[in-house]
Design a protein that fits this description.
The protein has about 170 residues and is α+β, with helices and mostly antiparallel strands. The chain is about 45% helix and about 15% strand. It has ten helices and four strands, in the order E-H-H-E-H-H-H-E-H-H-H-E-H-H. About 30% of the residues are buried.
């Protein structure tokens, strides 16, 4: 891979699939020049989510047991689509496109800002998680760990996309 070209993980959460927004969201990543190097649909067991959200993401450590439990409960409501995207500074680019974790705080034009709206206050008051459509790796280092959890090397593909002469 060329300098600054990196891979990052995204997960289309169950609410993105249930609302039939996957194609529309995916097109945003493709339009900015990111290419798909791996994808699959699956329903992981709780232990897989424990590794993803706590061993790598430290969600329970940062936000507490209650938020951790609510998050895992939401993720188990249906299948997810796991995908690896590649491009120049992919992790930070994807985070910018996705927007703030709290949909109410996400800027218009971001995925969460355009397709979700719930606030932490409302979710806390209702005792439920926030349907925010998508998970995106926090940074390049976290992306490497997450990709290794969700995909093996044989599932990652290398090919040249026609648009790369404009985006790399």
């Amino acid at each position: 891979m060329a300098k600054n070209v990196e891979q990052t993980l995204i997960l289309f959460k169950p609410d993105a699939l249930q609302r039939a927004l996957v194609g529309e969201i995916l097109s945003r990543f493709e339009r900015v020049g990111l290419r798909i190097v791996a994808t699959k649909m699956l329903s992981p067991e709780r232990g897989h989510y424990d590794k993803h959200y706590e061993e790598i993401g430290k969600l329970k450590t940062r936000a507490g047991e209650k938020i951790f439990g609510i998050t895992l409960e939401m993720m188990e409501k249906g299948p997810v689509i796991a995908m690896v995207l590649e491009g120049i500074e992919a992790a930070s680019l994807v985070r910018k496109l996705v927007g703030a974790t709290e949909p109410k705080s996400a800027a218009p034009g971001t995925i969460r800002g355009d397709y979700s709206h719930m606030s932490y206050g409302y979710a806390d008051g209702e005792g439920k998680g926030i349907p925010n459509l998508i998970h995106a790796s926090g940074d390049a280092a976290e992306a490497k760990q997450e990709i290794a959890l969700w995909f093996n090397d044989e599932e990652l593909y290398d090919y040249e996309a026609i648009h790369e002469k404009f985006t790399r």
